[in-house]
Amino acid sequence: MATQSYEVSVVTYGICLSACERAAQWPQVLQLVEDIRVAALQGNLVTYNTALSACAKSEEWAKTLHLLEEMQVEELEPDIISFNSTIAACEWEMALVLLEDATQRDLQGTIITYGSAITAYGKAERWQQALQLLREVQEGCLRGNLVTCSACVSACEKAGRWQLALELLRAAQEESLHPDVILLSAAVSACEKGAEWQQALALLALAPTLSLRANVTTYNAAISACEKCEQWPHALELLAGLHSAQLRADVISVSSAISACGRGEQWQRAVALMSSFKERAGQLNDVAFNAGISAAEKSGRWILALSLLADSLCTLAAPTVISCGATISSCEKGDQWQWAGHFLRELPRHQVQANAITYNAAINACEKGEQAVSNTRSAL
Questions:
Q1: CA 204/CA 189 separation, integer angstroms
Q2: In degrees, to the nearest 5, what angle opens at C-alpha 46 toward C-alphas 121 and 65?
């Protein structure tokens, strides 16, 4: 009878743990594990694996490691599922240690194990290690899947290795893995990081061929690639393409397009985009204001720069050093040394730390002002 009570208790706790894990309520999961201990019950492998999964999903790596150690204190031998969850929660250094630990315990790594480790490498921009693990998967009895391939492409993307990202995308197609929009977006983003705007556009155009519908993330990466390469007409085309694809442009889409216009000295278009987005979506962020003010600065429109900076002060908690620097630079270009000096003095009040570029622009403006005063005196 006592044995029956024990089994029911563990089952009851297990049901509660599963419910909390599915709801991503890791604090409640940990409390239930503690309750099991307080009740002098022996937690089992399923109990701990559920708790590990809950903490891993919430990226609570310290709690996950603690649970793994606690299992061994309770004389429970972790299985590959235990290690999969823990690896998924950790940074690449610890993920590698855990992968070695699992191997030493003669646990057969699954595609989930390697996928988690590759993802950890990807987040740390360790693309060489990510590719090495992918090779181990391919050389072993496991078959790579979209998760491992996407993780490797993401690692290459973060490191700006766009050629490798494209090779992996091609390899996925050859292996009939049917790339999804996440993999495609990562490849487009890799091209963006490498300033390969033509490759980014070619990949975006490939989406229908792969029976994929590009999302806002895919478009944003392509727009950003055009922005970096000063291809403002293409950036605007892509922004219009978002609407045609019945996707809602976000502040990242618009900010990149504004910046592209700024780089191309298309200040009218930059301001029009800012006004349009503000009317439709309500608020611009610091990136959008930085892009707009920079566009005004590059076009020598110092009054517009002042106006946009004033607008940002009403919208944002504080201006950025980029916005302030571009405004001061626009004043310098417009021979408005008094305004340049004024804004430099105002920076501390707005809790903005001036940098070398800001100081240089203000100094140049003041030097021009002194020269103008000197010339006026000489004329008199």
A1: 11
A2: 40
> Which token pair is 282?
């309500």
Residue 18: is it exposed, middle or buried by C-beta count within 10 angstroms (0-12/13-18/19+)? middle
* Nearest Cα residue to 324 out of 311, 338, 306: 306
User: How far is it, in rounded angstroms, from Cα 146 to Cα 173?
Assistant: 10
Chain-centroid distance of CA 260 in Å reads: 20
Q: How far apart are CA 13 and CA 36, in angstroms?
A: 8
Structure token pair of residue 170:
């091609």
Is residue 334 within 8 Å of 306, Cβ to Cβ? Answer: no
Structure tokens at 161: 């290795």
**Sign of the dihedral through C-alpha 256, 261, 265, 268:** negative
Report the length, in residues, of the chain: 380
Mean pLDDT by 10 residues, the chain (380 residues): 51 84 86 81 84 88 90 87 89 84 83 81 79 75 70 83 89 82 93 94 93 95 94 96 91 91 88 87 81 87 90 80 86 84 80 80 74 44
* 42 phi and psi angles, rounded to 5 deg: -95, 110
Taking the C-alpha atoms of residue 222 and residue 238, their distance in angstroms, rounded to an integer, is 8
Residue with tokens 């278009």: 269
Give the contacts of 296 (CB within 8 A, at least 6 positions apart): 262, 267, 270, 271, 302, 304, 305, 308, 326, 330
Tokens 């504080």 locate to 318
